[in-house]
Amino acid sequence: MPYTSDLKKLIKRVEKTRPERVERKKEGEEFPALSLKEREDILKFHPDFKDEGRSEIKVGSSKGYKISNEIVALLHAESRVPTDLLDLSNPDYEADVLVIGGGGAGTSAALTARENGAKVILATKLRHGDANTMMAEGGIQAATKNTKDSPYYHYLDAMGGGHFTNDPDLVEALVNGAPLVIQWLEKLGAMFSKFDDGRLKTMHGGGTSRKRMHYAGDITGAEIMRTIRDEARSHTDDIKVLEFSPAVELIINKKGICSGAVLYNLETEEYIIVKAKATIMATGGSGRLHMQNFMTTNHYGATADGLIMAYRAGVSLNFLHTVQYHPTGAVFPEQSEGLLITEKFRGAGANIVNIEGKQFVYEREPRDVEASAIIRECVEAGKGVPLPNGKYGVWLDSPMIDIIKGEGTVRKEFPGKWILFKRYDIDITKDPMLVYPTLHYQNGGLEINSRCETSLPGLYAGGEVSGGVHGENRLMGNSLLDVTVFGRIAGEAAAGFADKKYRDAELTLEHVDKYHNELKREGVDTKGRVSPMLLPDYSNPDVRKRQLTTEYLGTIR
Amino acid sequence: MSKDSAPKKKSKKKSEPIHDMVPIFLMGKKYDVPATLTIQKAFEYAGYQLVRGCGCRGGICGACGTVYRFPDSYRIEVGLACQTVVEPNMYIAQIPFFPANRAEYKLEELEPTGSTMTALYPEIYKCVGCGTCTRSCPMDIDVMEYISRAIRGDIAGAAELSFDCVMCGLCAARCPAEEAQYNIAILARRLYGRYIAPGAGHLKGAVENIKKKKFESGLKKLKKMSVDKLKEVYNARETEPQFGPEDWEPENKDYLVTK
Q1: Which domain holds residue B133?
Q2: This prediction's pTM
């Protein structure tokens, strides 16, 4: 659907202010960035600060912690697994390391566990590679240019972005691991964008002091994901992949060691027991819970499953009181709603402007600040652009990029987005895009240390399911880095545990029964809720009402 | 049981104007759906809960390859279900999986030559040049051209031309020569990325510097700093100009490695 005539009229206002804005950009004259104090003020418009959006967890190791209602509802729910009916004594599969999740973290973990001698089973809910990693566009941070950058500055930037709340040990591991994973990926054949002499192209992201964002066109995550997935497919003897088989509960043995998981075959609806000497949780994020009814950029499978399973097994949660909203999600046309418009557009020179075509925020503030500024402009200042469906957006002035950097830049640097919008009859080299903040990233998660160990022996976690490395807010380019760095650390640590520390004993699901008892004791009414959720429910509610003989557990049959 | 744990739907449904409805045929069965929906959302509107054939919902993961046809045409059209808007009287079938051939190889044992490609995928010579693959690509990739480059041993060309591939498999599903183009393409890209693209010298240097622990003392200092002091250092850090030259250098070189 091309722009409506009303919107076309409004675009004229953007065009009117554009030449002057382009001139300023060329002169290196930027809209003033906010001071730390001003950032604090504007953050009051961030959805995290809405008290009614959060509630207290009433059971478990993070009891009393206030986080998103949507996650709390899943924690205050019963297991999908009928613990009394399940026979754990005869596992269907055995492995040294079980990896739960087939995205960037899980696949990096599986490859690294294998490098360290482990036989691996990788269980994933949808297809191998169906994950937020695949959708990450912008890039991956690493201080690879030591005449102007180093892990020191990367550390500073990450801490500043996270409001200085990040776990210092995790940030240190992240920034030191960064150049190593870029080298690892280059060896695996990932096609990073390079100059003719092999020098990696890098650019700025929000909150970076040095250009250290490496990228592969505008599909960096997809390039990394398809490369490491292909590598995993080169080792089928050692890495067995079980697709459409999400884990639904962890297994803990009588010696208190995490010893695998119960899987659920989404197609045959049977339960599968995997016994493993070490387990890695890499299930990713939770955008499909639609916190506060926001749209999301996340993959279909991002439903917080790993948080729920590990929490029942006693692992604490951190930093879940903050959720990252990407400042620029598409809001027009409607079928593109929620779609990520990478920060790279702003890095390449595109301004954010309001209905009058005026700038109201520097376009490279950290994500939470940028998102809050856009929400304030629409909600409080009333200068958002009204959309046909009654919502609001602001303009991302993409045509500036070709004017500044030369014609063809947008097509070359953003081929994916260019094609997509062309299908809607919108030429983003000529007309700006309409954007609004969209649910993007789970900043927090399972508590881990810099070896990816959780408090449960034998259970490791890495990537979006874990929390601490990004503090209260992640910078662009640090999540592809997180999944690869911590995926690799988890893979190595888990293989080591399986080899040296694992002790065999009877498998149990006693922790699940215990959790159920605690729910009862605390008087939590689960209202028949079941978790993990596994899949969101977008099917037509009218049809569900008519499915009279179908029994649902949670969101799926 | 109740479905309370389902995500809350956006409330937009109620405030939305009522859209025109159009008839579509999902695997031959007729449903009336709002005209603005994508094929993916039309399935859901019809009452399906998708397990297969649904992934990123944003046109990049390749889970939802779909074929369709209109009653007055013999032509098979293709698209990604999450990106294609329904049209009246579409006959729709999803192809969430296609059993395509993937050769066994270890990248580190290969040589980046055309004969590697043709040895691993000898069927590549069966290409009849019909161009169905190119017409079947939802990403507008010239598939036939990259296959012919692979046949000619032009790995770099095949890699670059296939770069936007989402591996949905529609090319392979439609190919009369039974090629698995997208698997050939990823081999070309990985060979290119590892062997043909020039290596990054500065990257090697950065890895060595970390292994030699050149940044350890600086990081230790930062880790020990009070938050107030850290904020001070953060605010004082120099920022590389956005459109500055590649060889820009900051004034403070304390925690860098200068040549």
Answers
A1: 107-196
A2: 0.92
